[in-house]
Write a structure and sequence with these properties.
By secondary structure, the protein is mostly beta strands. It has one domain. The protein contains no helices and 10 strands. Strands 1, 2, 3, 4, 5, 6, 7, 8, 9 and 10 form a 10-stranded parallel beta sheet that branches.
Length: 116
Amino acid sequence: MTPSESKTVIGPKTKVSGEISGSENLTVDGQVEGVIRLDGACLTVRAEGHVRATVIAQDIVVLGRVEGEIRASGLLQLRGSAIVQGDVFATRLSIEDGATLRGHADPSKASEPVPA
């Protein structure tokens, strides 16, 4: 996904708390706390973005920081500047040199519902 494909952007000076749900691509340059649920869409956390949330999406690209459980039914990409703290469940996982993952990775649970 390229930034121009994202229909919704949370800007660098914006902080959102609560639940975000939808079916359009989302780009985070600011801060999000809570839950992000994107059905059939892509979440991109850019280098300045910081997410403290349970994240569920088809594809997820992380260049910034994510703290919390990540579930990608498609591809999870951790780019070189990514810092992820939490368990990841992804059908496919790509980790570039320099990326940090502190948690467990389990592809078998990528499509399972999130426990309440």
